[in-house]
Amino acid sequence: MSTAAEIRQRLSQPWQHGSHADFRGVCCDELLDLSGLALDGVDLSGAQLAGGIDASGARFDGLCWFREVTITGPARFDGTTFMNDARFEGARFAGASFRGAEFRGIGRFDGAQFAEGGDFAGITCYGNFSLQSVEGRGTLSFRGSEWLGGLWCDHASLPKTVDLAETQVHGRLWLRDARRGAAALRPEDFGMAFGYAYI
């Protein structure tokens, strides 16, 4: 068990190449408020964040691993900048907001679950963005988002109402066995796709 203040204090240290804070498996019942901070690299794999996390406007300078994390409170990453790879494989969100976030490495959400929806409107990703085997329920929006390194949606299960309007996909668009409700997810569901599409 770690307090939100302890985690915040550790992550507020200046980032140095090759270093990161190891909070794997940590349990935190309070809201973890990292909003607006420049943050050291962090591994929160397997963490239980019952109070939620607010990283709105924060900048993750080093590695950013949230693999298999469970966030039962709010998960706010609006306007967050991920300077390196952001790893959210197997993450379980009640609801999450990444509105306007910027991913300068990859954004990897393979197997993530969004029980009450998610807001990814206006995100920009410079590396590959992966939604492989994602399960999304409720309201899920990617409106106005741009993926410059391609988009991977193998076996993704998105709600019928997912908002993909005004999106742009540069590079590979992988849609094999991806679903939008009961129908197949198709290239024409996106605003524009400039590269090859695999269906």
Features:
32 strands, mainly beta, 8-stranded parallel β-sheet, Pectate Lyase C-like, 199 residues, 9-stranded parallel β-sheet, 1 helix
What would you note in describing this structure?
The chain has 1 helix and 32 strands. With 199 residues, it is mostly beta strands. The strands form 5 sheets. The protein has a 9-stranded parallel sheet, with no helix packed on it. It has one helix spanning 4-11, and strands at 21-22, 27-28, 32-33, 38-39, 42-43, 48-49, 53-54, 59-60, 64-65, 70-71, 75-76, 81-82, 86-87, 92-93, 96-97, 102-103, 107-108, 113-114, 118-119, 124-125, 129-130, 135-136, 140-141, 146-147, 151-152, 157-158, 168-169, 173-174, 179-180, 183-184, 192-193, 197-198. 4% of the residues lie in helices and 32% in strands. The mean pLDDT is 96. It has a single domain, classed as Pectate Lyase C-like. The protein is globular.
State Rg. 16 Å
First CA to last CA: what distance? 45 Å
CATH architecture: 3 Solenoid
- Major pleated sheet: 9 strands, parallel
Low-confidence stretches: none
Tell me, rounded to a whole number, the average pLDDT.
96
Give me the count of strands. 32
Helix content: under 10%
The CATH class is Mainly Beta
Question: In CATH terms, what is the fold-level topology?
Answer: Pectate Lyase C-like
State the shape: globular
Give a nutshell description of this structure.
The chain is 4% helix and 32% strand. It contains 1 helix and 32 strands.
SSE inventory with pairings:
Layout: H1 4-11, E1 21-22, E2 27-28, E3 32-33, E4 38-39, E5 42-43, E6 48-49, E7 53-54, E8 59-60, E9 64-65, E10 70-71, E11 75-76, E12 81-82, E13 86-87, E14 92-93, E15 96-97, E16 102-103, E17 107-108, E18 113-114, E19 118-119, E20 124-125, E21 129-130, E22 135-136, E23 140-141, E24 146-147, E25 151-152, E26 157-158, E27 168-169, E28 173-174, E29 179-180, E30 183-184, E31 192-193, E32 197-198
Parallel strand pairs: 1-5, 2-6, 3-7, 4-8, 5-9, 6-10, 7-11, 8-12, 9-13, 10-14, 11-15, 12-16, 13-17, 14-18, 15-19, 16-20, 17-21, 18-22, 19-23, 20-24, 21-25, 24-27, 25-28, 26-29, 27-31, 28-32
Antiparallel strand pairs: 29-30
